[in-house]
C-alpha cells in the first residue's frame, strides 16, 4: 500500500493512475485517526492520503476518479480506516450535493468492494471488522461490513450534523454509541451482530446538546462533552455510571475532539480556545488498573478510584457547600494551539499526544509540561510514495 494511484467509484472496478498535481482549488476536507492512533487519513479535493505516525511518513495516496463522473462531479469527503488494514470506508458526494454514498475500498484488490447509496448527507462513517455505521441527519444505519447492503439496524437520533458516533472494534465486543433522541442523551447499543440478544441503554450525559464523544476500542468507556464545552464526563457503557467529571474551563467553548489513552490513564481535549488539555483519569479498568496493579471485580469492568493528579481548587474540600465549579478537576497539563484551526488528538507511544490540524499540520507533543516533539506539514510532505501503474 505504499504508492499513489487513483480510485474508481463503481463496485468491482479497478483503479487508473492519474497525475495528482494540486489544483488551484485544492483543499483539505477532513482528517481522521485509525483505531489505535498509529495512522491518520486525510481527504482532499484531489485525493485521499494515509500517513504513518511513528516514524512520520506518507504511506499511500489514492487519486479520486469516480468512473460515473469522470469530469470530477464527485468528491470523497470522508475516509475511515480499519486499523492498518487494506479496507477503507469512503464517503462521496456529488458536486450538486444531491447524491451521496458510502463505499468500502479494498486496497489490496484495488477496487471498490461495494457501495451503499445514502438518502441524505453522510456526516460520518465508522467501521469495524464486523460492522459499518453510516451517520445521517437523524439516523445511524448499521450494516454488516462483509455482507454488502445487509442492514442490521436503523437507530433514530436527534439532529446529528456533527456526525457523533463511536463503534468498538474488538472481536469480543460490539458496542455502538450515538446521540439519543432527547437533549444530551447518549444511546448505547451492545451485542450488535452477535449471537447474544442486542441490548439498548440510554445515558443522560448532559443538560445541553451533545458536541463530542469518544470511546475505548473495546467499548467499555465513553467520554462526552456538550455544546457548552466546559465539562467532559466519562461513563461506563455497561451500566451508564458516571466514572469521572473534569472541567476544561469556565467559559463556553466548542470541543473539537476527545481522546482516551489505551490504558485509560489520560484524557485529551481540543477546543476552539486554542488549548490542548490533558487530564489524569482515575478509572480501574479490566483485570488490572491503569498502573497494572489491583484487580477489579471482573474482566472488562470499569470503576472509579480515588487517585488522580489533576489540579483542584483550594476550596474543593467544601464540595456540596459551594457550587460544583469549586470542586472541579482541572487539566494537569496544557499545550497552546492556534485558535484559527480545528484539531483532533490521539494518543501515541511513550506518553505522547498527537495532534492533527485542518491546516495540514501534524504535531506530536509529550511530557507533563507538554513540549513539542515534532512538527510536520503533512500536505507538503516531500517524501511521498512513488507513483506506480496498477494493472486491471
TrEMBL record:
Repeat in keyword set: yes
Membrane disposition: Peripheral membrane protein
Residues annotated as transmembrane: none
Domain of life: Eukaryota
Keywords: Repeat, WD repeat
Subcellular location: Preautophagosomal structure membrane
SUPFAM superfamilies: WD40 repeat-like (SSF50978)
GO CC, alphabetical: phagophore assembly site membrane
One Pfam match: PROPPIN
InterPro entries, sorted: PROPPIN (IPR048720), WD40/YVTN_repeat-like_dom_sf (IPR015943), WD40_repeat_dom_sf (IPR036322), WD40_rpt (IPR001680)
Similarity annotation: Belongs to the WD repeat PROPPIN family.
Protein name: Uncharacterized protein
